[in-house]
Amino acid sequence: MLNKSFYSLIIFISLISCKSEYKFVLKTPKKIQVNKSLTISLSEKNDKKIDSVQFFIDSKKLKTENSSLTIPISKYKLGKHTISALVFYENKTKKVEKPVYFMADSAPVLYTCKIINTYPHDPKAYTQGLEYHDGYLYESTGRKGSSSIRKVEIKTGKVLQQVDLDKKYFGEGMTIFNNKIYQLTWQSGVGFIYDLATFKKLGSFNYKKSREGWGLTHNKTRLIKSDGTENIWFLNPDTLAEESYIEAYTNTQKVEELNELEYINGKIYANRWQLNSLIIIDPTSGKVDGVANLNSLKTEIEHEQVIDNVDEVLNGIAYDKEHDRLFVTGKLWSKLYEIQLIKK
């Protein structure tokens, strides 16, 4: 009898406890285009009294007068944000959080391409990075045991200068900045710095916030790095620390596996791994402004050689600003293409 009364008391206390527990519901859309206004609201599931609510986006306090709020979001970067509500009730506080994804305000412009010129390219070059500088192409190649940086004559494809990486490294993207060559490695978390003229190694740097080393370019003030996700990182040119990043999004989804990068006329151009395309990205917001379908280049190279569709894919973007020439190639491709993008 005693045991029965004891368990009845426990059940009674539990029921009282459940009834008195506050259950907050934070409402916000899962994703929203940035040309629309974002509405946030908080309620208590059983309509219990709430003293006040304070809303935040990514820890930034928003002006709040009641338990709901509608704000414009056009000035926010695209990608994942955290909406949080700090709730005040019964002399207590509780924080409730929910993710929301900010999408581009419009669909990307679609392009095809026209081949202007075709040049020889070393079919043994596993192209990871490509850049035009003073009339020559500079190229970073990958794979352990065959990774290098090289200076290449455009018209002949002849390698004029080359330095190989240690066999333990898998070379990735590269860029030329302030008369130095910066080169990434894939999964080693380290990059190398070389003198542009002599290819002498000057030092190294580490990246910790970004997952891996994929593509590299610059905007004359900061280095710009991809890591195989939708994130594009901006590195301090002096310390090479990853200071900030953007996320690449269309009006409907994120764009992942961004690879080789090139900064062209204020936009970031990116290859996507295993896809024959160029993605044109706004460097401030992360909006995907354009997508160029380059499948015609894959068809063209297949007239020259048999390629592995998984590995020997389009990769490599270089731009000659003075003559407005855009060059692309692929991993182990025997041709370099000068192309013109054409709006569909």
Please tag this protein with its features:
344 residues, Immunoglobulin-like, eight-stranded mixed β-sheet, Methylamine Dehydrogenase, Chain H, five-stranded mixed β-sheet, mainly beta
Report what the structure shows.
The chain has two helices and 28 strands. It has 344 residues and is mainly β. The strands form six sheets. The protein has an eight-stranded mixed beta sheet, covered by helices on one side. Strands 2-8-7-4-5 form a five-stranded mixed beta sheet, with no helix packed on it. The chain has a four-stranded antiparallel beta sheet with strand order 10-11-12-13, with no helix packed on it. A hairpin with a 2-residue loop joins β10 and β11. The radius of gyration is 26 Å and the shape is elongated. 35% of the residues are buried. The model has no long low-confidence stretch (mean pLDDT 92).
